Amino acid sequence: MQTQLTGLAPLSHLGVIRAEGPDAASFLHSQLTQDFALLGQSEARLAAFCNAKGRVQASFIGFKRNKEDILLVCSRDLLPPVLKRLSMFVLRAKARLSDASNAFRVLGVAGAALDALAPESVQPWTRQDLGDASLIHLYPAQGDARALWVAPIDTAPPTGDSLALQRWMLGEVQAGVATVSAAVAEAFVPQMLNYESVGGVNFKKGCYPGQEVVARSQFRGVLKRRAMLAHGDEEMVAGQQVFSLQDADQPCATVVQAAPCPDGGWDAIVSGQVGALQSGSLQLGSASGPAVQVRAMPYPLLEDV
Q: Which CATH architecture has domain 186-295?
């Protein structure tokens, strides 16, 4: 029986990029898939940083601490190269980017621990002020509410039961909103991760790297690659390939993110060819590998914008 997702988990796998200055919002607006120019204090943004081919180099959860101070939470294992890449485009903008991972504490908060901090139910990507801390509400995991608690390192953390990082990571997978890590950097356009369906892409904003590819993927015909949930008995890790018996020679999907289940097996987010994922005959690693069962995402996919 799966345990309820509740408690507080230190999220050591996440890092923080800080953007400061009068042009911080406009600079990020010009580089990421979401609208940061109109980002309000009570909002957060899921956003991707793409290369020129529209492939996601990193994903962020971004929010304003104040008008000239924006934090971007991302996978720590790709923060250094992404920070270097982003900094190349600052040029004359009055913005300064830095690695603030050691200056801020990031906790995952879920279930009863979250109810104690914010009793009222709110929508994902809502930000709340809790003194010096920011509470960023996320998509739920099988009905369990989740949020990020982000605060300066010297801020006292909230009290509550401890939550194992492994259990938090399972909730991340079950929520169906992938965090891009180094293992899958530049492997997908945003729609292959369903980002347009979970608030990660704004098709009405101005240009950003890869914008033409992302827009063309959305508006020219049916999207042929999507992300779905999957379960298997054997360990799954980000970057592993998934095969279909319909075409045993070519992988049809890639594991984006995975975590072990308390009652056995592994859950994962996989991204691949829609037809193959819906076929029901999938194997991990090779056509003769262990079986993988695909499940629907817990949210609807947008067919139009």
A: Beta Barrel (2.40)
